[in-house]
Amino acid sequence: MSKYLKATTAALVLMLAAHPALAEKFGLGREALPEEIAAWDLDVSPDGTGLPPGSGSVMDGEDLFIVQCAACHGDFAEGLGNWPPLAGGEGTLGDARPLKTAGSYWPHLSTLWDYINRSMPYGNAQSLAPDEVYAITAYILYSNFLVEDDFVLTRENFLEVEMPNADGFIEDDRLETEAHFWNTEPCMEDCKENVEITMRALVLDVTPVDEQEEAIMGEAPAVEAAEVVMTAAPDPALVAAGESAFRACQACHQVGDTAKNHVGPILNGIVGHPAAAIDGFGYSGAIRTAAEDGLVWTEENLAAFLKEPGKFIRGNRMTFAGVRKEEDINAIIAYLSTFQN
Ligand code: HEC
Ligand code: HEC
Q: Which pLDDT belongs to residue 304?
């Protein structure tokens, strides 16, 4: 078939899908049968709508889980290798790398039931009977210490299970709170001639943390708030300049995928990162004290530190005189901001 014909066929199919009457006229397709719609319409809502009758115990769930799920998710739902954990993670949502599971993160039990029913076991989706899904769901709750081992999950008691993070989500109120962004009249004449994109926002940590959300999320340490840092994706020339200026640091610091702690700590993701918090590096007391006081490596703090390390944190162990030229400092920061941890 020629390219042209293929394109027109695709357009025709799209058009027919959008206009059932035309489909009929051309003798193509048919309306879906109620059975087909029912087979496809599986979803379970947070209020329990869509749950079939049934029940399953933690004990039965354990047996099923060992056979059907443990090869990937571990005997206790703790996850194996790179397969995802389904249990644990409580109290980690404020961390730089939260462990999000049904126990720590998912607000509704229905999501767990629905996910398993719809898509697990991986490679053999929708092979489980409702009672089996109830039992396995009960076992995952048990693995998260949310129910006792004699618990039986049923459609009737489904909504009574308390999900630890049920209140951890907030209403999306941007329509009101950010209305001013889209209420402005677009300029239709005599507008600015050239629009130049000078920087792009790169969100290092997309979870906003302020006092109100902190209250919802539990006690996040004070430094977390400052961790929410927006940096601009820097201009490539500046990054290149930073790469050469970084030679001054390379005797002691490594960056990139294969970076290891050396004389100084790995600097991946350091821009916006709390100070003295790179895993496995033995910091001096001086920098640890500064970190306890909430020091975060914002661009400003980094610039001040790199200018005069010994003055910015007295008694720290980075035996380095400082970077003399302001432009080199900016370039190094731009370069460092391209490495995420
Ligand atoms: C062959 C490996 C494998 C088996 C067996 C398996 N899973 Fe999974 N499971 C996965 C993978 C891979 C994902 C992630 C899928 C994705 O993100 O698209 C996953 C995701 C999940 C999730 C969502 C995790 C999250 O936090 O997003 C749940 C819940 C889950 N599986 C439950 C089960 C249950 C229950 C069984 C047994 C009935 C099972 N799985 C069997 C591989 C497996
Ligand atoms: C002679 C070795 C050496 C050189 C050169 C050096 N550093 Fe360091 N750097 C260290 C050491 C050691 C520490 C840890 C300080 C401490 O524990 O008090 C450190 C700490 C840091 C930290 C704080 C890291 C954290 O986790 O809080 C940053 C940022 C940093 N260095 C950036 C740089 C940059 C950028 C350069 C080059 C302009 C540079 N350093 C040059 C040895 C060095």
A: 94
